[in-house]
Amino acid sequence: MTKIKISGVSLPLYILMIVILAITIALNKLPLNMLGLTLLLVLLGHLFYYIGNILPIFKSYLGGGSVFTIFASAALASTGVIPSNIVGATKTFLNEQGLLDFYIAALIVGAILGMNRNLLLKAAVRFIPVSLASMVIGFFSVGLVGMALGLGFGHSVMFVSMPMMAGGIGAGAVPLSHIYSQGLGVSSGTMFSQLIPAVTLGNVMAVIGAALIAKIGANTKYDGHGVLLPITENEKTQPIKNLDATRIGIGMMIAFSFFLVGTILNSFIPKVHTYAFIIILVILVKGFNLIPKHLEESVVMFNQVIMNNLTHAVLAGIGLALIDLGVLQQSLTWKFVVLTLTSVLVMGISSALIGKLFGLYPVESAIAAGMCDNSMGGTGNVAVLSASNRMSMIAFAQMGNRMGGAIVLVLGGILIHYLH
Known about the structure:
Blueprint: E1 5-6, E2 9-10, H1 11-26, H2 34-52, H3 56-61, H4 64-78, H5 84-94, H6 99-113, H7 117-148, H8 153-165, H9 169-184, H10 188-216, H11 245-268, H12 274-287, H13 293-322, H14 325-331, H15 334-357, H16 362-371, H17 377-387, H18 394-415
Antiparallel strand pairs: 1-2
């Protein structure tokens, strides 16, 4: 048993920590703060990720550890194994208390600053039109299939396609529900309950789709191994092998400073998400070489530490707090599933084909544009990229997600008066 290691921890020691966690929960003594919730998510995340990667069907066809972590965690919440007060505290910890912001800020800033400057600029100008074009094609495809199924073009695009592409829950489904409620004169709660099934099921399908795309395209000429377009030797990112504790701290300060500047700009222009401002700022800083190389490396070090240690925890948090298996079960009519699947399939295929026309690797293009544009915003992007082992593309995923989501919200306010 000591030879089996879960994220570097021997199995007996891991079982001991799980038992301690279980006793603490049973006694209702788990601290509902950063200490207790971080340990809960890390232990569950690493354990479920390990199990998912050794289960035959999951590891081969259903997204492996990433998908298993999400669903196993969701099952613990839905069955009451994890008490509702802990589930509620986890949701607050992810969102209001900022664990998700902490994680995504580290990933975005580190991913962009760690890229070759020329590669970043070449990839960005090609990726954005690919992402937006696949969204347009997905929109009309869902509408036409909805007409064929007797659900109508307007209803299909407004309640399936657009919530899937709106950029998640907090930045997507919530504001979209308010926009719809004003246009239709009904409560935003009623609208939200009709939008959330598409967001949830679309996210699940996108995660599984990303894993399948990565598996099918592996080691073919269409596979960029996590890089969007062909690169020269000079453009390859050299991995940092020796981590320095002091420099990791410096990297954290720089990454979070970018987040605060994005927050300030968002306060003046609320319709542009903080993450979008962060991406723009870091690309500008990288494009004009405004940060010395040693500071860039410090941010990349911080990125590596956070990605290696918190990715599985964030996936567990998504499952516990954001995936409602009951809502999913109620929405699983065959027509709804067909419409959701249409969006994921069509956007995946179209982004791969258009991406190839723009000189991008089809596998990476399909995942970063097609799948991530159907995901649950920031958390969904993490799940999609983790399932396909392409976390290095988080900046592009967020880029398409936020730009596309903003456009969806604007169009939603206009089209709700005409299409429903």
